[in-house]
Amino acid sequence: MMRYSRIVPRNGDQPLYIASTAVVMAEIIKLLVCLCMLRSELKSWSLCRSALVKDIIYNPNETVRLMTPSALYAIQNNLLYLALSNLEAATFQITYQLKILSTAIFSNVLLNRRLNQNQWFALGLLMVGVTLVQITTREEEQPDMEAIKQEQNPMLGLMAVLASCISSGFAGCYFERMLKQSSTSMWMRNIQLGISALGFSIIAMVTSDFQAIWRHGGLFQGYTILTWMVISNQALGGLLVATVVKHADNILKNFATSVSIILSSIVSFYFFDFQPTVMFVLGAMLVTTATYFYGSADESHRRQLQHQQQTPSSIKPHH
Predict the structure, then answer these.
(1) What gap in Å lies between CA 282 and CA 287, rounded to an integer?
(2) Could you tell me if 23 and 206 are in contact, meaning their C-beta atoms sit under 8 angstroms apart?
(3) N or C: which end of the chain has fewer CB within 10 A?
(4) What is the pTM of this model?
(5) What is the domain extent for residue 168?
(6) For the chain, how many helices (H) and strands (E)?
(7) Per residue in 190-246, pLDDT tens?
């Protein structure tokens, strides 16, 4: 949807919506949803208000500590729009899986997490698959999109994806470290994160697009139903992933990611006249396999560690 919203032909003088405003709107929706979930968790608005005052107003240090990942998330969300304005959706979706590699590296640095041989093998498959996709990708846009295609810069899109992967890996591991060091509710953490992210998103919007917003129609210029669908999907998608990880496991999350790669390719084929090559299909298969294999190995290793930690406590010492 994001890709289509950036390249769909527009009627007359209708402008293209400004990506930075969409990021701001997504952060507002995310904050509202987190507030509702926190209220549901605490059972009343009065308790919710007390918790917000306690954790945000009287304990600003936690919010300040979250400024680093929130700034990175704000940058990342803007980079996603830039990437999908210049890359075909299937190519983006596959290349974006390099965030698994960046997450693995930062997990080692920030969380002291070691990778096993199966995970290193999966990362190798991932690199090969993404390389094949980038080398062999060929896109044939519909004739009425030819002018838009000429304005696209695949190299800029690739750089945006890579920067977004690095940002995602570091911010995710940093946020996970904070979650594990505190008993604060996940929804409260997301509210603290969202407040900072909204602030940084507004700064990015004003810095880069203030003139366009002021002169050409305000914040909501070029907005359509499709734009609001994209914004809502972007806002709720991250919270959905967090919920899946909390209530399921990495295997299911990575299985869903693998399915999304396949769906993106199918949709791109039918809606954007995307013509995948044999090497693209091979690369996509390698990335899908690596994504699922890495998540399975990670979950297996985690369960093994839990078993090792629980086993000694069940053995009674001999006197």
Answers:
(1) 9
(2) no
(3) C
(4) 0.76
(5) 2-8+15-310
(6) 14, 0
(7) 898 889 899 999 999 999 899 888 887 788 988 999 999 999 998 998 788 767 766
